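Posting this for the archive.
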Amino acid sequence: MYKTIYLFVILILKSNVFAQSITNNPLSYYGIGEQSFGSNAIYNALGQNTISYFDSSQLNIFNPASYSSLSSGNTLVSLGIDFRRSQFSELGNTNSQVAVMPDHFAMGFKLSKITGLAFGIKPYSSRGYEITEYDSLNSLTNKYQGTGGIRTFFLGTSIRVINKQKSKLSLGVNAESIFGSVTNSRISKMFSTSSDYPSGVSNSTIKLSAINVDFGVSFNRNFSKRHNVMLSAVYTPNLLLQRLSLKDEIFYAKLLSGIITYDTISYSVSSASMVSSSTKAGFSYTLNLPNWQRNMRQLHPSIMLVGSYSSSSMTLLDSKKIMSHLGFGIQFIPETKLFENSTNLKFLEKIQYRIGYFQQQNSISSVIDKSINISGLTFGFGLPILVQQSLSSLNIGFTFGKNTDSSSTSLAEKYFDMNFGIILSPPFFDRWFRKRKLD
């Protein structure tokens, strides 16, 4: 098992699957693109609550305080992929687009009884859109495109400073290296030409290289065998160290001896700074329900309520973006003691059921001020892979959402999002990082 996971990790890291983070939202034109609040099939299904729910069978990379909750000897490998289909409408016109993008890749394990460690790569922001404009006055067809993505490589650890039976307090930190670039392009073509080659190209590229940290905290309290409450928070200060360059290029395209060539009309490179920070706070409440009798079988169900609020701001040049996010979710587990009763369970009794709702408000201040509202209904399932007492699982999350702004005639989006996530863990007898001794 461990050889399979190791080979899979090497293939992921050597491939270019994270070379581009793709989206299909025209609003990613602003700043450094559409900033990620965190994406995962488990947490997306719970109303996009990312910081207030974790246990030993999950790898929550969005709250570094969670790493001390991992179980000893079980190395978790978490990865996911996101599928999104959007329908855009503006002034009676509609258009559909599809985007498939990598979600995240991470590995985590317990270092000691009270400490844990994790590392991986996740999206930071992304840009992706394509809009065509027909300029009859100048006999031009202008195609506007946004491409690129900015990623984060992180290395994090946490320690449980209070580790009592009923009370647990954990502190964590993620050290992050942020890198990548996003580009806005305008490709112009004359009406009169039948060539597929553009007459001119204009590119505006932002390249970011930065170092930053995330600070996380979580407090878990067992009031009784049936009632458990967790409070969590994550704070991300302004970038500690950054190099942000702006490059503007304008090319004139011409066909010479059947070969397309470009002459540079304008070229400039400058440096700038970006100010960004975010704060997240959340809670979870778990209620262990009374045991159920099902055809001579006893089940141990539980229900959990989660909620979170996030606020972030980003200022770059003449553009400022303020974002707030509010989400709620419910999870129902028919049987919490899977390993003890796995042979007696029906298929539907092994599944974890999730549902949630979220709403997000974005205020963009630039040449034209925009107020954008995003809301969605989410649901999903968790399917444990009960092979040789492994903590592996397959998780699927679905989102039906809409994206509108304050102007009734502006661009609107309705989308369907599907997240696939898998957590891989060695079986019980093949655990990693175990202490061994000889008699």
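The longest strand covers residues 140-163. Residues 378 and 399 are 4 Å apart (CA to CA).
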